[in-house]
Amino acid sequence: MAKMYYDKDVDVNELKNLKIVVVGYGSQGHAHAQNLRDSGCNVKVALYDGSKSIEKAKKDGFEVLNVESASKEADLLVMLIPDEKQKQVYDMYIKDNLKEGQTLVFAHGFNIHFGQITPPDFVDVFMVAPKGPGHLVRDVFLQGSGVPAVFAVENDYSGNAYKLVLQYAKAIGATRAGVLETTFKEETETDLFGEQAVLCGGVNSLMKAGFETLVSAGYQKEVAYFDCVHEMKLVVDLLYKGGFEGMRYSISDTAEYGDYVSGKRIVDDHVKNSMKEVLKDIQSGKFAKEWIEENENGRKNFNKYRQDALNDEISEVGRNLRSMMTFLNKK
Hints:
The protein is α/β, with parallel strands linked by helices.
């Protein structure tokens, strides 16, 4: 059984005495910066000149630095810009300014694991990866709770990295829910696989296939959307709170029986074999290489995929239905 660390196991006093600079103020950046500050830490934000987030960060009360200045003065430099931008920013503004005793912090292992960033031996490198989007990390923190996370130490030059990584996890609220140790390799590969095969790629494709099957059989598009997309949240909420057994307890016996006899007809050995191929591409670095090249070449495929998805029938039906759901439109 994996060891979980909670609030009672960690004291953040040492972290409060260090200069922390969060690079980026997007989904994870704004959440980490504000949670760290609310936990009593000394936090600044670093952004590139012209960033749309500068005014937001200042409005939230942060001093905003450029990345080069931040890399020189920070004790902990927290890399929370998108994966595809980290190497360029690191190479241009950070690499040559690092000094002995500093710490590089990540929320995802992509750039370290796939060799896009290779820090010098004289800095500590660790990761705290919340198992949820940044807006949730901030929202549940304000509610007095937290999003669980995994942590890993890639380089412990100072001999203090394991202590600091847990303090960082507590300061962003993760130890309220519990954190467990992993490695940069394991976090990166399982996170990418989960996104592609299940949480995003898998579930989205499954819902779309179900929607198209019903529509092609002559059923109303709106009804198909409700049954194959809208209700997904209701089922996932039950899973979130009670696992498979809690979900199955809450649904009808008819639905539960259908779960047992039909689910395995959809996700069969062929699907599992496809999942293994996806995992193999992640483990070999093929996916990472493809994604890096996609960004280097102007994102032509990515932009087309995004536009095609926006124009898809299921997206149009969903937008129209949501516009009529007044409870979703409340601020």
